[in-house]
Each structure stands twice: as C-alpha cells, then as structure tokens.
Amino acid sequence: MTHAATLPACLDEAFRRLAAGVKDRRCAFHTPTLATTGLDGAPEIRTVVLRGFDGTQRVVLLHTDARSRKVASLLREPRCAVHLYDAVAALQLRLTGRCTVHSNDGIVEGAWRASRPASRKCYATERTPGSPVPEPPQAPTDPEMGRAHFRVLCIRFDRLEWLHLSAGGHRRALFTWRDDAALQCTWLVP
Ligand SMILES: Cc1cc2nc3c(=O)[nH]c(=O)nc-3n(C[C@H](O)[C@H](O)[C@H](O)COP(=O)(O)O)c2cc1C
Asked: What Å distances lie between residue 54 and 16, 17, 43, 50, 136, CA to CA?
C-alpha cells in the first residue's frame, strides 16, 4: 500500500477498507478485535466478525449472543474500542466509541434474516456461552433456537486512529468527531 498523501485520503482509505472488510472474508479487516471493560473493571478483548459498516453514521455492526460476557460488559459500560490490523497493507486502525445492544428491532430482524444457518447455530447453544461443562457439548442442531439469543452490537465511533507502517517513514493520523461538530483531524508523531 502506498502512503495516503493527505488526511482526507487516509480517512477515505480507512472507510473503504472497513466497507471491504464487511464483504470480503479474506480481508484482515473482516475479523477485528473488540475491546470492552469487564464488570470487574478489567480489560477484555476478543475476535469478532465485522458484519456492517456505515461511514455516514460512523457505525460498525457486530453480531453476538445475548448471554455472552461482552453483552453484560457493554450494557454496563458502552464505551469500547475496535482494533483492526492488515499485515499486508501494514495498516492499523483503532476505533473508539459507544455501543448500543439491539435485541428486537428492524436491525436485528434484518440481520437474522440475512444470516446463514451455520451462523445462526452459533447462538443456539442450550447453555450459556462460556459456562463450564464436564466435556465439550454437542453442536446445536436447530439454528432457529438461536434467534432468542441473537443480538446486534452497533458501535458508533467518534475517534479513529490510523497507523501505516512503511520503510520510508511511518504515518499516523487522528480523526475525531466531537458533539457532531465538524471532523477534526491531525497528523501524529508515529
Ligand atoms: C475468527 C473468529 C470470529 C469470531 N466472531 C465472533 C462474532 O462475530 N461474534 C461473537 O460474539 N464472537 C465471535 N467469536 C468468538 C469470540 O472471539 C469470543 O470467544 C466469544 O464471543 C466470547 O467472548 P466474551 O466471553 O468476551 O463475550 C469469534 C472468534 C473467532 C476466532
């Protein structure tokens, strides 16, 4: 990847890669890391699949299970971060924002309708994800059992940090949106 020459070009590139990460399973941005603050105040991170991106609203969409630890954490502390790293492009993005957990609205219905049976089964485990069991449980057979547990996480970010590594000199930039005021952006020392 060549250096984006201007700050607007960096932001365009970031948004383009986020959109591509939703559609292309082979993109590194397809599987970002979501960081939350646990109920005990400790940091928690995990890999997730990037399911949606709306550049106009600055929203990323993720799917998860209502019973998961991350949902409890996000309901208590909606502030969270999303980390994306593409080793081929040598590009890291860090998004910081607030999450809303959607359970029974059009967003969830649409996402459920669009999801494949194999994905639906992820939410169909009988017991709570993460609970201890004496042996690995049988995989769920009925994908529709997952609907009750299916949730969509909408993360609206107000900070995007860009870092592009290059032998010719690294480039780092920060984009912030404050109270819906105009975008502020600056280069940072890498
Ligand atoms: C490649 C990959 C993709 C994953 N995608 C998701 C996902 O989209 N949603 C999700 O809830 N968990 C996903 N997981 C599982 C999470 O990383 C995590 O183990 C699980 O959600 C439990 O996290 P929690 O206990 O912090 O809630 C994925 C794991 C991997 C390795």
From this structure: 11, 12, 27, 12, 38
pLDDT tens string 55-85: 999 999 999 999 999 999 999 999 999 999 9
| Domain spans in the chain, listed from the N-terminal domain onward | 7-188
β-pairing, 33-37 with 150-164? unpaired
Dump pLDDT digits (tens) for 112-124: 999 999 999 999 9
pTM over 0.90: yes
Of 3.90.180.10, 3.40.50.300, 2.30.110.10, 3.40.50.720, the CATH number of 7-188 is 2.30.110.10
Instruction: Report the separation in Å between the CA atom of 47 and the middle of ligand 1, taken as the mean of its atom positions.
Output: 5
Region label for 120, one of left (φ > 0), alpha (ψ between -120 and 50) or beta (otherwise): alpha
Sign of the Cα torsion 15, 16, 19, 25 reads negative
Q: Is the CB of 66 under 6 A from ligand 1?
A: no
Nearest residue (by CA) to ligand 1, atom 7, is 48
The residues near 134 (Cβ < 8 Å, ≥ 6 apart) are none
